[in-house]
Every structure is written in C-alpha cells, then in structure tokens.
Design a protein that fits this description.
single chain
Length: 255
C-alpha cells in the first residue's frame, strides 16, 4: 500500500499497460473491486484507492467536497506519473468520475460511472445521515446496508460476500463517512456534465433503489456519445453482477 497526499492506493497488472483507476462507493474500501481485479489486471495496470475518510487513507476529513475527492484522484495519478488513465467509479466514485470528466478530462482516457447520478439524494438526507453517524457511530447505517446494496435473492445466496462488505462499512471511521456525506450533500453536476467530452459508459442496476436506471439515462442523455448498460443487480452491481459488469467494462475499453 502506498500513499499520495494521504490517499492509500495499490496497483496490479503490467506496469507498462494502460492504466485504469477504480473508485469505491461510500462506506467501502478498495477491496470492493476484488471481483474485477483478475479480469482487468490481465490487460491493464489497475489502480485501486481508498476514498478520503475510508480504509487506509489518512488524508484530513475536516472539510471534504466533491472537488476534494476529485483532486485526490489527480494526486494518485501524479504520484504514479500517469498523464492519463481510464477511470471506473461506483456510486460516490461515479460522482467523482463525473467531476473528473468535467474538470480534468485531459487526464481521463475513457470514463465508466456505475450506479450513480449527477445528483445523488438530497442535501437534507445526507446532512441527516452525517449527523447520525457523528452522534451514534456506524452501527445503524451498517445494519441496513444489505437491503440498500443488494437484492434479497443475492443476500440469501451470498451471505458471506454481503457480510464482508457490510463489515467494511461498519469499520469505516464515522468522521470519514460523515465528511463524505457532507460532500455528497452539496454535490450537484446536473448542469455541468454536458461538458464531458471523453467516451463514457454509464452502468445501472435494474433493481437499484438509490441511483436508478433513470438517473443513469439522465447522465447518458447529457454526455455526448455516451450510452447506458443496465444489469440485473441492485446498488453494488460490480459485486452482484460481476461477470456482466466485467464484460461491459472490458468491451467498452476495447472499442
């Protein structure tokens, strides 16, 4: 594990291959990308990192915005001397990817944003969740995660996978989680994503109650030349529909 301005990251795959950065969702770590690692590392230099306030990242969380989260990615690229890389982010990571497309498109090859929206939730919703975890810790948020992240069928068939990801959430520092809730509360790219000029794939989960297929279509309709793929999954589609997710990503990157 290495750090760039306090952001923990790791690499896998051929060092001279094209790079792809993977950005985790709120309340998870870079380990959430385990279902993608082997498939991507055969052809790409895979860079996974822990978002600020998560996992092994130690960057300050006293004031976090979407701008902060986007610039953390640029710090990792700079630390690796990568002028440009593909980017794949899910949920909060997908919003980070949209920020990069708007503000740092010259650093992005192809952009994949999954289970996300140009505006996720509401200010009051995120502010309330931030206040909850600051006051009471992560237990209540973690307790309801399985139903937000996965379909009931997946929860029943893969209890160990669900338990592992729920534990990532439970172990997330409350101040780091709350700081990212603050960032999401004010993050709204609905008016600016039309300026994204890099090739973009938007992945949605057909059963996602948080960021819907309609949210994905909203992005695709405004980002020129982009398209949407809907998978048989809920919010963490890279886990629930890993094979289909990997196939969609690899096909897009091969174009």
């Amino acid at each position: 594990m290495q750090h760039a301005n306090g952001i923990a990251y790791t690499t896998a795959g051929p060092q001279d291959a094209p790079a792809i950065v993977l950005s985790n969702s709120l309340g998870t770590t870079l380990d959430m990308w385990s279902p993608q690692l082997d498939a991507l590392a055969q052809r790409f230099r895979v860079v996974r990192y822990d978002a600020r306030g998560h996992g092994a990242s130690v960057a300050p969380v006293d004031s976090v915005s979407l701008d902060t989260l986007g610039r953390d990615v640029l710090a990792v690229l700079d630390a690796l001397n990568l002028e440009r890389a593909h980017f794949c982010g899910i949920s909060m990571g997908g919003l980070t990817g949209q920020w990069l497309g708007v503000h740092a498109g010259e650093r992005i090859g192809k952009l994949i944003v999954a289970n996300t929206a140009a505006r996720i939730g509401s200010f009051d919703g995120w502010a309330g969740r931030a206040a909850l975890v600051r006051a009471e810790g992560m237990a209540e948020v973690a307790g309801g995660a399985a139903g937000r992240w996965f379909t009931a069928d997946f929860v029943e068939r893969h209890p160990l996978v669900v338990a592992e990801l729920t534990e990532q959430l439970r172990a997330t520092p409350a101040d780091g989680y709350a700081a990212c809730c603050d960032a999401l509360a004010s993050a709204d790219l609905r008016e600016s994503i039309a300026t994204i000029a890099v090739p973009t794939l938007v992945i949605a989960g057909e059963h996602d109650p948080i960021t819907t297929v309609d949210d994905a279509r909203f992005i695709a309709e405004r980002v020129g030349g982009s398209r949407t793929v809907a998978l048989n999954a809920s919010h963490l589609s890279n886990v629930e529909a890993a094979e289909a997710f990997n196939a969609a990503v690899l096909a897009f990157l091969a174009e």
